[in-house]
Amino acid sequence: MPEHKNYRTILLFGMPGSGKGTQGLVLGQLPDLVHVSMGDVFRKIPKWGRFGQEIARYTSQGALVPDDLTVRIWENHIKILEMQELLLPDQHTLVLDGLPRNYDQAQRLHAILDVVQIFHLKIVETPRAIERLKARALQENRLDDMNEDVIHRRLNSYFDQTFRTLSFYPPEIVFDVDAGQSPLEVHCDIVNRLKIVQKSRTARRPSAMAETSG
């Protein structure tokens, strides 16, 4: 994928069970926003294929998929969306959920992603996140994800790698959201922040045009 191609991007960060997928799905229904969940991308890959079998070796143990494989799968998915004209870089903003998961992935994607906002969905009480994960696994018939050992490994991976990835980005674009609220309240906090970001972006346009014309 050419490095000069920038995708205006919103990132969703948060521990497993914080509701990133729910918020991503809702945001993806808004005009000009395209939601891409790496978890969903992985799950749609045929399990009997080469990639599917390789991915399963990691996810079944609650481990993260290697960076190189993750980024290649994401690039292929983005390429397909563009070919189908479901993603138009000049018009759409990506909402990414589950990528980047670590500092190295953030570095790899830095030349491609124009990250304008990060929503950090925070859950103070870890047991609440665990119960959410179990309920989701039961609802989606993902019985492996109900195993407490797998859940704790996923949470540890989040704190060891994903949470630290926030430090790669400027703190002013990171917005903390209380994920312990109801999904509607979380969504309201996110939308209110996006309104501020949009107003700020719109306000900068006239000055930029003035500089160009001068």
Can you characterise this structure?
It is a single chain. The protein has 214 residues and is α/β, with parallel strands linked by helices. The chain has one domain: P-loop containing nucleotide triphosphate hydrolases (Rossmann fold). Helix content is 52%, strand content 15%. The protein is globular and about 50 Å long.
Topology:
Layout: E1 7-14, H1 20-27, E2 33-37, H2 38-44, H3 50-59, H4 67-83, E3 93-97, H5 103-109, E4 113-122, H6 126-139, H7 148-165, E5 174-178, H8 183-213
Parallel strand pairs: 1-3, 1-4, 2-3, 4-5
Shape call: globular
Distance between the termini: 35 Å
Quickly give the structural class.
alpha/beta
CATH topology: Rossmann fold
Largest sheet: 5 strands, parallel
Number of domains: 1
The assigned CATH architecture is 3-Layer(aba) Sandwich
Strand order of the largest sheet: 2-3-1-4-5
Q: Helical percent range?
A: 40-55%
| Name of the top-level CATH class | Alpha Beta
Total of helices: 8
Q: Average pLDDT value?
A: 83
The count of β-strands is: 5
What is the gyration radius calculated from CA atoms?
A: 18 Å
Order of helices and strands: EHEHHHEHEHHEH
How much strand content do the residues show? 15-25%
